[in-house]
């Protein structure tokens, strides 16, 4: 937490769970409910299918989505991402496990409570937004507000505000067919935001967009998240998208979560060979931060070198020391010197030869670093 964040953001990033998921299974096939906890539960997918005719699309998954975070679910096609996100609002009925939203048991909800959940609390943004073709942009966005009992003028005013928020001011009266794919996505986003849900669920919404537009939409999500601190669950098969957007990333394989961590943890400390292979080509210096490479400052080091923030990327720090010509950069947090990062160490991160997340002893520890005499 940095001093520059608004108190609002501080509240939202508290360690509260929006979704709380424990030992969740979704098995498709005959006698599906016998699979979790049964003799075949641990079988790999092909053998499970052979033995039971079933597919475990979601397999004993547990996690919390924390208030205010972008929780990314990443994995290859068929790994269970869509099934998992649909289970969250019971668009798909889980086979077993427990599931709560804001502490309320989702599995115990009756139909009207579920409808309420899907409409107002956990709004879903799909790849195909399903806009109403004969309605204008502003009316498409206002659609979600009709069920809330607002007057027509209130709805239009609120919708116009949201249209502007997603960067479509001036296009209020167009119809979906008069918009580009990226613009249609923005309308869908505005429509999901209209009901002011406590969590937004995205299932690969940008997969069909060309790379430039896709990047623009990612920036839009980052900006919305920064401005509103809204909780989001974002599904993607794209690693760079996951790394750009995710506060934390759950990496799925064959229905299970193989690693759950920050982008830095996933790239810097892969849990197994599968994850290692997955992140092999990621430019580490663009994900790992200065905080993972810094060491305590020695006497006399508080004056030299360019200043960088602990959450700056290694790439940014390298640029800073290259520009200044210093052998090291000072790591400053809210005006305070918190450490030093050596150019050589930064380059080791790039080369992959550095151990990330080294926890250096504090300067005042008894066995802490001493002045080195050359
Ligand atoms: N309705 C269904 N019936 C049977 N199998 C399904 C069904 N839906 C999904 N699956 C299977 O579950 C697995 C996970 O699918 P899905 O959740 O769509 O993965 P992803 O979204 O990661 O591509 C796949 O093996 C898929 O074939
Ligand atoms: Mg999918």
Describe the structure.
- Helix 5 (137-146) packs across helix 6.
- This protein has two domains: 65-278, P-loop containing nucleotide triphosphate hydrolases (Rossmann fold, 3-Layer(aba) Sandwich), CATH 3.40.50.300; 284-351, CBS-domain.
- The strands form three sheets. Strands 6-7-8-3-9-10 form a six-stranded mixed beta sheet, sandwiched between helices. Strands 2-1-4-5 form a four-stranded antiparallel beta sheet. The protein has a three-stranded mixed beta sheet with strand order 11-12-13.
- The radius of gyration is 24 Å and the shape is globular.
- It has helices spanning 7-12, 45-52, 81-88, 111-121, 137-146, 152-165, 181-194, 211-228, 239-245, 263-268, 273-278, 314-324, 343-351; strands at 17-28, 55-66, 70-74, 96-101, 104-105, 122-125, 199-203, 231-236, 248-253, 256-261, 307-308, 328-333, 336-342.
- The chain has 374 residues and is α/β, with parallel strands linked by helices.
- 34% of the residues lie in helices and 21% in strands.
- It is built from 13 helices and 13 strands.
- 36% of the residues are buried.
- The model is unreliable at 1-14 and 357-374 (pLDDT under 50).
- Residues 81-82, 204 line the site of magnesium ion.
Kindly state the mean pLDDT as a whole number? Answer: 87
What compounds are bound to the protein? adenosine-5'-diphosphate, magnesium ion
Question: What is the fourth-level CATH superfamily of the largest domain?
Answer: P-loop containing nucleotide triphosphate hydrolases
Number of strands: 13
Query: What is the molecular shape?
Result: globular
What is the level 1 CATH name of the largest domain?
Alpha Beta
Specify the number of helices.
13
């Amino acid at each position: 937490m940095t001093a520059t964040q608004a108190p609002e953001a501080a509240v939202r990033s508290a360690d509260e769970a929006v979704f709380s998921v424990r030992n969740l299974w979704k098995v498709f096939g005959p006698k599906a409910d016998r699979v979790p906890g049964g003799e075949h539960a641990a079988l790999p997918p092909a053998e499970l299918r052979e033995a039971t005719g079933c597919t475990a699309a979601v397999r004993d998954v547990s996690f919390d989505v924390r208030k205010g975070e972008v929780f990314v679910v990443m994995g290859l096609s068929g790994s269970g991402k869509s099934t998992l996100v649909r289970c969250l609002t019971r668009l798909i009925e889980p086979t077993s496990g427990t599931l709560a939203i804001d502490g309320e048991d989702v599995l115990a909800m009756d139909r009207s409570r579920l409808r309420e959940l899907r409409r107002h609390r956990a709004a879903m943004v799909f790849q195909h937004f399903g806009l109403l073709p004969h309605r204008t942009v502003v009316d498409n966005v206002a659609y979600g507000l009709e069920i809330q009992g607002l007057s027509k003028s209130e709805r239009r005013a609120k919708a116009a505000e949201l249209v502007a928020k997603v960067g479509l001011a001036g296009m209020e009266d167009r119809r979906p067919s008069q918009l580009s794919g990226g613009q249609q996505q923005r309308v869908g986003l505005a429509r999901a935001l209209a009901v002011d849900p406590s969590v937004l669920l995205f299932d690969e919404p940008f997969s069909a967009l060309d790379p430039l537009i896709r990047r623009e939409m990612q920036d839009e999500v980052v900006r919305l998240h920064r401005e509103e601190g809204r909780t989001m669950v974002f599904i993607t098969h794209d690693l760079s998208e996951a790394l750009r957007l995710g506060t934390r990333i759950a990496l799925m394989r064959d229905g299970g979560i193989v690693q759950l961590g920050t982008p830095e943890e996933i790239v810097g400390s892969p849990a197994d060979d599968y994850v290692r292979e997955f992140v092999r080509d990621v430019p580490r210096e663009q994900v790992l931060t200065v905080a993972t490479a810094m060491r305590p400052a020695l006497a006399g080091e508080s004056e030299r070198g360019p200043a960088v923030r602990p959450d700056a990327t290694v790439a940014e720090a390298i640029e800073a020391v290259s520009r200044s010509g210093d052998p090291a950069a000072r790591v400053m947090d809210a005006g305070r010197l918190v450490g030093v990062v050596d150019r050589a160490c930064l380059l080791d991160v790039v080369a992959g030869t550095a151990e990330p997340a080294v926890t250096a002893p504090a300067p005042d520890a008894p066995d802490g670093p001493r002045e080195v005499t050359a």
